[in-house]
């Protein structure tokens, strides 16, 4: 049995990550967790809403294809730390994430959130790179 985690973002690379995950997934024995973690700094809620919609679409895809999954949506101050905690809490073996996930902001008008995201990425690096380094499980980054 393998516990798989899909890091959900509204970016199209998330769909490709799910397709790659399903190449390895055995619905008879494996477990699938799809989790959308967003930032508390999104005061307009556009990122949260976009992630919620993406999570809903992915969950619907799994339902239509008879794939059992567990979904969560969480807003926190540190996205990477939350995913690391989820990996530990659910004993995740493999985390799948799109290469361009968590890079772009939904609204180009939300200058404050875009500026914060850009500065954070300059100082801390990308969320994807940090997850590869810190996740504590196999991380598959899908282009």
Topology, pairings included?
Blueprint (H helix, E strand, L loop, with lengths): L2 E5 L5 H12 L6 E9 L6 H19 L5 E7 L2 H11 L4 E5 L12 H14 L2 H8 L3 E5 L1
Parallel strand pairs: 1-2, 1-4, 2-3, 4-5
Tell me what the structure shows.
With 143 residues, this protein is α/β, with parallel strands linked by helices. 45% of the residues lie in helices and 22% in strands. The chain has helices at residues 13-24, 46-64, 79-89, 111-124, 127-134, and strands at 3-7, 31-39, 70-76, 94-98, 138-142. The protein has a five-stranded parallel β-sheet, with helices on both faces. The longest helix has 19 residues, at 46-64. The mean pLDDT is 89.
- Work out the helix count: 5
Strand percentage lies at 15-25%
Distance between the termini: 26 Å
Order of helices and strands: EHEHEHEHHE
How many individual β-strands? 5
Main beta-sheet annotation: 5 strands, parallel
Shape: globular
| Helix and strand composition category | alpha/beta
Low-confidence stretches: none
| Averaged pLDDT | 89
Helix content: 40-55%
Q: How are the strands of the largest sheet arranged?
A: 3-2-1-4-5
Q: Whole-number radius of gyration?
A: 14 Å
């Amino acid at each position: 049995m393998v516990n798989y985690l899909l890091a959900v973002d509204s970016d199209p690379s998330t769909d490709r990550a799910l397709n790659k995950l399903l190449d390895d997934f055995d619905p008879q024995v494996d477990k699938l967790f799809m989790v959308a973690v967003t930032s508390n700094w999104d005061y307009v809620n556009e990122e949260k809403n976009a992630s919620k919609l993406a999570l809903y679409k992915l969950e619907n895809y799994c339902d239509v294809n008879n794939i059992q999954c567990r979904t969560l949506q969480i807003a926190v101050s540190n996205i990477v730390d939350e995913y690391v905690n989820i990996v530990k809490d659910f004993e995740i073996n493999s985390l799948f994430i799109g290469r361009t996930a968590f890079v772009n902001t939904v609204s180009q008008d939300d200058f404050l959130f875009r500026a914060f995201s850009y500065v954070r990425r300059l100082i801390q690096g990308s969320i994807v790179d940090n997850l590869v380094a810190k996740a504590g499980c196999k991380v598959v980054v899908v282009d």
